[in-house]
Protein 1
Amino acid sequence: MNFYQSFEDIFPEVLGNRTPKLAIFLNLIEPRCGGVLIIGKKGTGKSLMLNCFKKILKISNLPFVEIPIGVTEETLIGGINIEKTIEKGSRVFEEGILDRAKEGFVLIDDINLLPDEYLSLIFKKAENFNLVATLNSEEGVLSPHFLDRFGMCAVTEDLKDLSNKQKLLKLYENNYQFEDSFLEKYESAVRKIERLKVLKEKVRVEEFIWDKISETVLKEFVFSHRAEIFLFYASLAYAAFKGEFSLKENHVDEVSHLVLLHRKREIEKQKVSEEKQKEEKKEDKEDRQDLKPSGERKEHKKENFSQKEKQKEKNRSESSEESSQIEMSFPCSSKEEIFGVGEVFKVKRMIFEKDKTIRSTTGRRTKSKTRLKGGRFLRSVMFSKDKDIDLFGTIRSAAPFQVLRGRKNKLIIYKEDFRYKEKERKISHVVSFVVDGSGSMGVQKRMEAVKGAILSLLMDCYQKRDKVSMIMFRKNQAEVVLPPTSSSDLAYKKLKDLPTGGKTPLSLGLLEAYKLIKKSHLKHPDTRIILIVLSDGKANQAIKSGEDPILEVKRICSEIGKLSYVDSVVIDCELKNNFLKMDLAKELAKWLSGKYFLLEDLKAENLVNLIDQIKTEHLESLERF
């Protein structure tokens, strides 16, 4: 029954990509697998695979619908049928796209382009259908909440093999007709799926499998119960796919990548591994002490006591060494140094939540409701300041009352029937950089990397049509080195000449940013502001003498956090390979209620590298069978 060796027969137009094919195939065998999210770079066959899947659904006579990117809310969940409502004189409702997909499949290409509110509507009804979608890893991501709703996730692979590239070219050499191609192979696959569905009902599930599934999920630090449920059904379908009559542990292992890939929590994994290492070190020390004889342990205590006495004397003579160590963690040298600009890179996309403010600005960063004529239509509303009439919505609201109003030929529309368009379009921001110029940024030329990151962010701001401003804090002062401007050249000139050295008056820098933000908001109330703080968070200089610098920072952060029109981002510039690391920037992000990034995590290529790493893991797991 197992036909994995001839797996090219499934979606023969798509070369390679066995993992996404397997994920889709398992969902056809067992619909309770929860759907598939296919992730990959552009040109790797994601959309083609979706079209091939559509062809197999047509042959199988399974219900399915496609959701276009320009879909409206009423098209999704249903609304009033205008023609029947006018004829009947009362509201007649018609079902939406999602209702037509009951016990079938919903297909979405480039799901990351759909608004979050539409995704919420789709996932609310997801229990009635299976969702198969594609996502371009280079353009955007979904929130973890939406990712968890997918049963499986698979990554497409690049065609690097020369023979596969030649096969692809030969496929399109003649007049290639997609709908009529490889029909025999598709019909054969449908027959095999029907046989595997019957076999699936005969697969035995032993008691130990439940423990195996729970252990597998917990081992990857996944705490979603959906993962366990989807992993069970995926393992069941895979057992049938392999022609087995009992569910085995290796079946769980082979499909765990598909179910857990998009749910893994690497941060938790790192924390636990660090804690384990610390515990192991402590245990090793205790074991070494226990292995010593009692006489040696007493001598060891005496040696420790004498060493402490000697250490006091050494402290006086070695004070210079200690001060140099302190400078490594909190350098406050008054010596100034100007570092060059480090490596420039493509910045990872930062996604900010939409607010309810209606704006008149344009740009390329964040979606917002707009009162301008252009923009994407969202919904009909009863009241609007711009008075942009929604003709279809107006007719729909007037339709149920035509009989009562005595309509003969023309529609009778009253003032209260008018509906207006609510639209959205992308807007620009004012991005305010708060840069740490203290001596700690000069350690191992860290300021070079920071300047490279700022220049990369400035380039991103230029592309998104944002205005930028820059505040630098060091020694006993904080100054606005660049007021809000659209000139990227001016920003670069100011950036490359920024000096480094002195103490860290972080609270003063944040206070100056707070003043600048309030001033910008008074001038342009519609403007949305992004505050980007680049620092290691090691504040050692207060505004008021005698105050705790950290508590002062916390108070100012709480005031900034109250501003609804400000989105805060903290970029941690601390060296994490140093044993003196303190992770204060992470606390700073919490106080600001903002996003937190390590300096190295800003690179967009890191996300692509992660996808490549996941792809390699997939291929290695497939080689085992």
Protein 2
Amino acid sequence: MTATASEAGAGRPDPPESEDGILVAPKAAIFFLGALGGTQAVDPIIASTALVKASRGLAMEGGMIALAASISTVVLAATVISMGLLGDRIGWRRLLIASLMVSVVGDLLAAAAPVAELYLAGRALAGLGLGGVFAASFAYVRIITPKNKVPAALGLYSASGSVVLVTLSLLGGALASIEWRAAFLIVPVTCALSMLLATVLLPATARLTGGPTDLLGQVLLALGIVGVLVGISHLSQGVSDPQFWLPTLAGVALLGGFVIAEQRVESPFFPVAVLRNPLFLGAMAAGFVYNFTQSSTVLQFSNLWQYVSGLSPMKVSAGTLPFLLVGIIAALLTGQLITNGLRNSTVIFVGGLLCALGGFATLLHRPGSGYLTLLPALLLLGFGATMASIPYGGLIVKAASGKFSSFYGPVTSSRTTIGQIAYAMGLALSTVMVDKLTTGGVVTRLRESGVPPTRTGTALDSLGIYVRTGKDPASRLAEQTLSVAKASYLNSFKVTMVAVGLLALLAALFGATVLRRGAAVEAAADAADTTTAEWAGE
């Protein structure tokens, strides 16, 4: 298929509208696009797995390690919307191949880096490149898929990404345990193969020229996102810590400046009016359910097994497999159900409800209980979160294909930025909650067992040493502290997961309500475009 520009010169490629159109999306192409999305998702997982050995090998310390852990995802989130604009301008296949090349260079540089500075440069390049990879892979779904088949295509896209994520993350963990540099070869090899497949499976799209550049808007948006993400990453240090509130406030101020600037500039690169669109608001809510639940679940279950059960990293990875594998089933089933007429508002609500039930299911776990008592929670959380991911993508695609079609690239690419912010919030908020509840519980239990307040500080210090090093306690007080800490941690874990599930349900209720109330308004405002009624189910 050859794409055409809109009359304004800054539109999106025109997709086929039915199976009688020029191109019907082959399943192989959709599976390939999902695999590209999975490659982007697995890169930071592999990097996190390899970080301990990489930081030791490159003599990283403190802030350098924290920067190494987050730099690729921060760069990706800050630049991916601009990548969407670039995809409209140069053509999506050109952007995809160029981004794959940048990703290869970035991770090869990280793998071969003799010093920490080059490692950081490589990870930043990888984030930049993989942002373009994801932007192109997601945008292509609508480009090559008939409108009535998009939900099913997104289900296959998500399932394919999950398969790649599970497979490559396990391979990355195995290689990282042997040699951390070898783990960083996985993504370059995958990207190199993808360059060849892209030319075979994907159609070229036209270069859409003459649209806005709006460099000021792009810079304000990128810096604002960086500020918010950096601030959220320091939330665990407390809301009064300048490392949290300074970048967060600066980021919010820059994002506010971005909104004002986009409303005043003659040719904005991103339509801020989409932030009031019911489809987009519903997508944001669904994205929160998916990303917030996913990050909280994987992190907190992993920490529970590592700190309380004492499992090895490989066993921890294996323990989370049901959460990921059930998502494959959920993605395929949900995509087909929406294609057959199930409302997006219903899907989002059910997804949030399952997440809430999953949070409460953690209450089944007791001290000394086996893995199977946590399995219902993992399955409910995994199925519910993945259910929400299908309308999350579909509603953004539909918003970008309707009245905001002249901003197709930036709007579809915003999915990643929304997801990164929600994901970071899940990591930060769940960590803070578990830490605060655990510390309070430890202090209370020590006091009840007769430990004087003057020795509480020493007890907590010994607990910190265990968390950082994994070494067994060396004193009776330390043994006592660790014992009560494990019990307190388990209680804190369960309370936190219940809270995570309830927050997901609240977000789902908001999204479902917005879609239901907004559908009629959207349909009346644009009677010629049935998108809202079709996708919101009203």
Protein 3
Amino acid sequence: MPEFKHTASLTPEWQQDFVNDLGCTLIDNKLMNFPKDKATGSGYFIEISQDISVLIVDVTLNEPMRFTRMPSEEDFWIVYYDLSDNFSKHFVDDIKHQIGYKSKLGFAIIDSHIKSTYVSVVGERSFSLRLYIRKSFIKNYFHDVILEQDFKNVFNDKKRKMFYYGHIDSRSKVELYNLKQQKMNDSNYEFSLKSVAYKLFGFFLERLNSNMPKAGSFLEKDLNAIMKTQEYLLSNLLMPFPGVKLLSGLAHMSISKYRSLYTNIFGMSPATFFKNEKLILAKELLESGDFILISDIAYELGYSKTSYFSLIYKKHYGNLPNEVFKAKSF
């Protein structure tokens, strides 16, 4: 797979790599159109202030490609949001993470000194936004005690830089979804992008002030263990919820540690996640036309009573299963 290496910075000069080496066209040093033989779509970069910039990328690859951002000499955080239509792969220090709208991890904080690679699915829309925030600017928002206790490894240049993966908070997801519906060549797009960037930055600061320090300090091996239990849940949606005791055992953690880490990463309990995913599957089965009766689907999903299945389905979606059910035709 071809690899395109590029730089990143708080100022727009980095875009010249895409013009010189990839064949992109640049308009007003902001709108960057990709060559159609490689990708359909554009990127948009603006400086919000001398300490914050925002980049949004909305493309569909026409051929396989790895985009590798090389380590920067500037000292900033890349706060990353991914709302791609399918799974994308993000490699940080050669460790792979699945991201995108269908992934449960669409949010990241990456140090500018760490190399990262982005691989999207050919033919699938890739949509992501990056806030570039100078570290010294972030320091102004926290008391020295908080920095010393919770962020010393992040701001201490002598120590290995940290990175964090987690879920996109609901407020940010709404703003990103609305921005995703707009076109970059619209006359008011820059205004909309700035507005969203300010809101995301505010939500990000709130998150840092609340649970982010604890969430960001877990080890990579713990994240991998949690993700394995996530895969287990997704592979067993036709069964009853296995229980936190079994899941914590699979992760080789105590129940309390597992429950806390899982909630920090995904923003919900394992039981809530399992129920939500089971109901998403239920909706797909109801609309598939592969079943004769609704009760067949209820039993397929492990519900012993159709009435109970209908009750929780309505509570989740606001309508009854029979309102969306497509019966199998013969």
Protein 4
Amino acid sequence: MLTAYFLVPLDWFGPHHPLVSWLTFVVLLTLVGAGLLREARRQMLGHPGRPVPVILTLLSGALVVFSAAYLGMAKQPGELVGLTTKVDALYFTVITMATVGYGDIHPSGQVARVVVMIQVLYTVVFLTTGVTALGRQVRTRTISRARGGG
């Protein structure tokens, strides 16, 4: 998924195509969030399956969606200071997701600040849910193996 992010041109995101940009952002985030919640629910209910690849793909999807959004916003002067490339956008997304924030790239416009707040809330709700489901799967398998169940 990250390879596609770097290979696919994202010129159609940004201030020149606001409807396409926002619609794509909302739809993709909704799909990723729904997928994470679905997989977490499956794990909580004890359904069989291999959630690791699904959840990691969805987490990568969230990274790509936010990175593309930040890249598009950076085309509007004054929104994101210091963000000019896809690597910058991915870096900013990861740093924001980890709630580290070095200050080298920062939102200065109102739209960028709102999207950063959305990402932080999204991380707390959806990504934490995905990681919790992964942890549950690992615990369940570890206990099962310790008991000789496979």
